[in-house]
Amino acid sequence: MDMMQKMMGQMGSQPGGEAGNPMQQMMGMCSEILAAIHKTTSMAALATPELHTLFGEWMESLEREALAALDDQGAADATALATKLKISEASAIHVVAHLASKGKVSLSVRATGQGAP
Question: Per-residue confidence of the chain (117 residues) as pLDDT tens digits?
């Protein structure tokens, strides 16, 4: 999703403030998407069953740590939780969303006031 937002933001940011050829921009976006798909596929081919198991165990460990932190604090924002778990904020959000989908936590959302949607 971040890549798509980046690409969409680049569409109107050509030198001189003028948008470039839309077809060329779309082809560039398609090329970047295909490169990302290729990279993901290549990485997936290297993931052995043992690595899948280890990743699953690591995720379960992160979920337990996140639940413990939330039990201690009662509430936490994504940045604080990420710092406590020593992972990125995006990863902390993913862990909490996964816990919420299991009904183990409830989410609270508020606007940050940082820019337009």
Answer: 555 555 556 555 545 444 567 888 888 888 889 888 888 887 777 778 888 899 899 999 999 999 999 999 888 888 999 999 999 999 999 999 999 999 999 888 777 777 766
Instruction: Compute how many other C-beta atoms are within 10 angstroms of the C-beta atom of residue 69.
Output: 15
Q: Is residue 20 within 8 Å of 14, Cβ to Cβ?
A: yes
- In angstroms, rounded to a whole number, what is the distance separating the alpha carbons of residues 56 and 87? 16
- Residue that is written with structure tokens 């778990």 in the block: 85
Q: Judge whether 63 and 81 are in contact, CB under 8 Å.
A: no
Tokens representing 106 are 């409830």
**Rounded distance between C-alpha atoms, residue 58 and residue 65, angstroms:** 11
User: Quick check: pTM over 0.90?
Assistant: no
Which 3 state secondary structure label does DSSP give 75? coil
CA 82 to CA 67: how far, in whole Å? 13
One-letter amino acid at 110 equals: R
